[in-house]
Every structure is written in structure tokens, then in C-alpha cells.
Design a protein that fits this description.
alpha/beta, Rossmann fold, seven-stranded mixed beta sheet, two-stranded antiparallel sheet, 6 helices
Length: about 210
């Protein structure tokens, strides 16, 4: 089968094992297995937890997170694209651009209060120019971190996708200032050609606030 192109310009085979597994298990995207692994591996959620999912379309993460928090929990997903309703009472979504002026105010108006977990699967529109794509990915991860610091509870967790690049270490250092423990994870469902990883911040320090 002829490969297509990944977000960083490398070939991959879209209908792989996890693609087929997602279809078989009713997940909207193969990426659901990524957040499923991370949540399980680090015991990030409990029944009744509140989660903010950034870059939530088409809803694969939402499906996993909804199950993890149970009927007493709440998951709120945002994306620039509309998300087809999941039909679950503990999931709400909105069409919002995290980079738009006034995003924080709009988010607060839709869902107030703090979260136990902030998750970001935000990805830039890629150019095929590695340095440019890495910089755009970092900008989104920095935006997600700012939201995690402003909306995450003390002791909360943070998960963000990031393309590996030259500014990876400074960004990880900023997470280490904000969280007691930071992990770098490449989930099993990640495509072989991908340069993406996920950074996981555990136990947000109570003294920190967003800048």
C-alpha cells in the first residue's frame, strides 16, 4: 500500500493496527488509545473528576475521558472544528480557538471552576518545514500550559502533545517548575514516523499561577 504523509512530512500507513482497532471498538480516532494509555499508566483520573480537553475533535479523547470520570464527572472539550455530539451527559463541547483574543473569558463563561486534568492534543497546521512546525507546536503547548496553570487545581495533572525540537528542553524545564513530577511519553499507538511525544505534568504546585 502506498503511504501518505505524516504531519512532519514522513510516510505512514493510515489503516494500521490501531486504526482498525479504533473502528472495531467504536472510537472516533486511533488517538484515543494514546490518552487511554497515559491516563491508565499514571492514574490521572478518578470518578467525579473534571477535565478540560483542548483540541478535542473528532472526540476520541473525549470518549476515553468520559468513561474515566464516570457519570458524576465532567469533561469539557474545545476545538476550532465542531465536534459531533457523543450523546453522553457528562461531556460538553464548544467551538473555540485557543489562540483567539478573549478565549479565556469565553471559556470561563461556558464552564467555570477548576479542573483536575487539562489535556491538550492541539496540533498546528503543518508546512513540512520542520523548524516552523516545531515552533508552532511549541506555541500551542505553551498556550495549553498557561491554561493548565490558570484553570488546574493545585495537585492537578497536565498532558500536552509536542513535536520534538530544539526548544523541547526549555519547555520541559518550565513544566518542572510548575509540577512536582514530569514524564515524557511516546504512547504505543504513536505512528512510527511521528516526531510527537506527550509531556505529563503530575501534581501541580499550589504556589504557581499563570503568567
Amino acid at each position: 500500500m502506498v503511504g501518505t504523509r505524516s504531519s512532519m512530512g514522513k510516510p505512514y500507513r493510515p489503516k494500521d493496527h490501531y486504526f482498525r482497532k479504533a473502528k472495531a471498538e467504536g472510537f472516533r480516532a486511533r488517538s484515543a488509545f494514546k490518552i487511554e494509555e497515559i491516563v491508565r499508566r499514571f492514574s490521572l483520573l478518578r470518578s467525579g473528576a473534571r477535565v478540560l480537553d483542548l483540541g478535542a475533535a473528532p472526540g476520541g479523547f473525549l470518549q476515553v475521558l468520559s468513561e474515566a470520570v464516570g457519570p458524576k464527572g465532567e469533561v469539557f472539550g474545545v476545538d476550532v472544528a465542531a465536534i459531533r455530539p457523543l450523546g453522553r451527559a457528562n461531556v460538553r463541547t464548544a467551538v473555540l480557538d485557543v489562540l483567539a483574543e478573549g478565549f479565556d473569558e469565553r471559556l470561563e463563561a461556558l464552564v467555570g471552576g477548576a479542573f483536575d486534568l487539562v489535556v491538550s492534543d492541539l496540533a498546528p497546521k503543518t508546512t513540512g518545514i520542520r523548524g516552523t512546525d516545531e515552533a508552532r507546536s511549541l506555541a500551542l503547548a505553551e498556550t495549553a500550559l498557561r491554561l493548565a496553570l490558570s484553570r488546574g487545581k493545585p495537585g492537578s495533572a497536565f498532558v500536552t502533545k509536542l513535536f520534538m525540537g530544539g526548544d523541547f528542553e526549555p519547555f520541559r524545564a518550565s513544566l518542572r517548575e510548575a509540577y512536582e513530577e514530569v514524564k515524557v511519553v511516546r504512547p504505543e499507538a504513536t505512528r512510527g514516523a511521528s516526531v510527537e511525544v506527550y509531556l505529563v505534568g503530575l501534581r501541580r504546585r499550589a504556589s504557581l499561577r499563570a503568567g
